[in-house]
Amino acid sequence: MTPRLQELSIRGLGVIDSGTLPVGPGFTAITGETGAGKTMVLQALALLRGERADSGAVRRGAERASVQGIWEGVTGGAAASVEDAGGALDDGELILGRTVAAAGRSRAQAGGVAVPAGVLASVTDRLVAVHGQADQQRLKSPAAQRAALDRAAGHELQATLAAYRERLDAWQRAQEQLQEITENREARRREATMLREELDQIAAVDPQPGEDTELEALAHRLEHGEALRAAIAEARTSLSSDGDVPDAITLVGAARRLIEREEDPLLEPVAEQLIVAETALAEASRELVNFLDALESPDRSPDEVQSRLHDVNGIVRRFGSIEDALQYGADGALRIAQLDDDDASIERLTAEVEREHVAALELAETLTGIRTRAADALQQRVEEELRTLAMPNARVAVEVTPGDELLRHGRDEVRILLAPHPGADAKPVATSASGGELSRVMLAIEVALSAGDVPTLVFDEVDAGVGGEAAIEVGRRLARLAEHAQVIVVTHLAQVAAFASTHVRIEKGTDGEVTSSSIAPVVGEARVSELARMLAGTDSEVALAHARELLADGTQRSK
């Protein structure tokens, strides 16, 4: 079963307070007066397609706007995207939702779970394609014409384009590197010279990690040697004395012996603690003796220490710390190696630039060939479509002209030319096509490119600028397209709407203060009245008769 949109529910969006749009399996036409809210249907679909949410679209007085779409028969990649996000489908039925708070926050749902808006985009890209009035205007731009041709060229072009861009990026990177080296060669020489001088300064001092702290402490000891010796000697005497004054070791030892003499098991832990204390005090006393000996016979003189401290502090001031200086030295050595390799780098990069340029050129030529072949096929398909749109003698040319500059899309300029009738010169649609011709060319291209691509096609006033017999042909072509895909059309032409198998009207109402629109299918005489309104703005007998004739004609012609 081919996936299709069953219904679209809208709440609090623009002029629509609440409504559900029923969508038929074939050709659904959406009509209504100007300002009734037809564009809200497209806005709702845009939200379900993961596009940016605008809180300004929330209906005045509402806390939020919400839209929900129900699809049936969903399988394959669309279903997999939902399931990968944690959602579920019920026998192929998929529900997508989006809410937009008036405060600006947006939430998306797919298959019953909250998902990022990007998941909606990945799902609906496989389910629905929307072609609006803006697409017709974009068709005037060379970029849009090239994009249309590239869509026609398919996977072969996309794969080649990806490979081309890899080579183009590699070529441009190599060019930038080569330019940076050659243009800044003198600056690079100066950088290398400066680095060598700084590394020589570091090497001459040869600072060691933590040396500045050690030197500061040593300088302090040497400067205050006499006072330090006196303090240490007194401290040592307090710990262990040869005189009659009781010292700490003697007192602790006496306390230990008194405890041990009692031979009480409860006192054994105390005795062990006193043994530990006695041992620690003895060790501290020996350390103080060693410290005094070092003070008496220092390894370095005060002048020597101050000189070394001066050199080390110079490095610290220059680089921030000894550790930073050592890291700078390591990094600088690597940088010097790079800078000294300029000649070899220039030779290597020159060869790389040439190699990547040749590769990019070859792929650009391949792109030109693919586009040229696709152009021949596309113009034939578009001409076939135009023959069904009341332009039986129109000729279309899709020109592919290679340029000299390699750009992200290759080097090709693409132009779509149109000769609308015999004897007319083919001219660019961007400058010569009328509004009606541009609409039909756009429809022809989209039909040629979209058929079989996605199951649901949405057209927003694709009939703009069209009237009379041409409008009837547009309606008939849409009806034929609906034989193979679900087609939803927002239209203001009765000639187009008459071909629809499902006709939905969006009707504007007001209580004098607030405008509100309703959504409802029109059938029977209600549909005849709607077609009459679209034809003549009235439901007079003449208009109704014309509408009945048009409806009967549309029904007959679409068979």
Mean pLDDT: 86
Order of strands, main sheet, comes to 2-1-4-5-6-7
Low-pLDDT sequence parts: none
Helical stretch count? Answer: 20
- Proportion of residues in extended strands: 15-25%
Task: For the record, give the distance between the C-alpha atoms at the N and C termini, rounded to a whole number.
Answer: 23 Å
Over all CA atoms, what is the radius of gyration?
43 Å
Helix-strand category: alpha/beta
Instruction: Report the biggest beta sheet as strand number plus sense, adding barrel if it closes.
Output: 6 strands, antiparallel
What spatial form do the alpha-carbon principal axes imply? elongated
Number of strands: 15
- What fraction, in percent, of the residue positions are helical? 55-70%
Task: Write structural notes for this entry.
This protein has 559 residues and is an alpha/beta fold. The chain has helices spanning 38-48, 76-84, 117-124, 133-138, 142-153, 155-183, 185-205, 211-223, 225-239, 248-262, 268-296, 302-319, 322-340, 342-387, 429-432, 435-450, 468-481, 494-497, 524-536, 541-557, and strands at residues 4-13, 16-22, 27-31, 64-72, 94-101, 106-110, 113-115, 128-131, 395-407, 410-419, 427-428, 456-460, 486-490, 502-510, 515-521. The strands form three sheets. The protein has a six-stranded antiparallel sheet with strand order 2-1-4-5-6-7. Helix 6 packs antiparallel against helix 14, helix 9 runs antiparallel to helix 11 (268-296) and helix 12 (302-319) crosses helix 13. The radius of gyration is 43 Å and the shape is elongated. The relative contact order is 0.13.
